[in-house]
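Renewal narrative, Specific Aim 1. Our central claim is that a sequence can be written position by position from structural information alone. The example that follows is taken directly from our test logs and has not been curated for this report. It begins with the structure tokens describing the chain, in the order in which they were read.
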């Protein structure tokens, strides 16, 4: 049996921009992608702490160390610049993989720079 588990999380990220004219997605600073292992075009779920919106989209890489978190296309309607969001990535794991599993989770500051890792692998 496979179980869908949280694989990675960027906690308390601040939306830096929105671009309604873009075809879709969320742009995330490449440094945050590297830290969490989230890949370009990977599906993510977003939770907006300011308005309660939850939505799914895919990732495109932003400039490294820019702090960029940009809602693009239709997702630009789900939040405003300055909103605080949580970015979740999920994956399927079998029972053996779950035994030694822990998600990669980071809290970031208001400039989207990593403050700390929220948990450590088992």
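The sequence written for that structure reads:
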């Amino acid at each position: 049996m496979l179980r869908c588990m949280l694989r990675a999380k960027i906690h308390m990220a601040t939306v830096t921009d929105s671009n309604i004219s873009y075809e879709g997605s969320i742009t995330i600073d490449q440094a945050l992608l590297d830290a969490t292992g989230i890949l370009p075009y990977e599906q993510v779920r977003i939770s907006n702490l300011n308005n309660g919106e939850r939505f799914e989209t895919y990732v495109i890489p932003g400039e490294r160390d820019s702090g960029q978190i940009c809602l693009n296309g239709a997702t630009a309607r789900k939040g405003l610049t300055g909103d605080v969001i949580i970015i979740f990535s999920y994956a399927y794991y079998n029972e053996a993989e779950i035994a030694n599993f822990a998600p990669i989770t980071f809290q970031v500051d208001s400039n989207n720079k990593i403050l700390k890792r929220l948990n450590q692998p088992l």
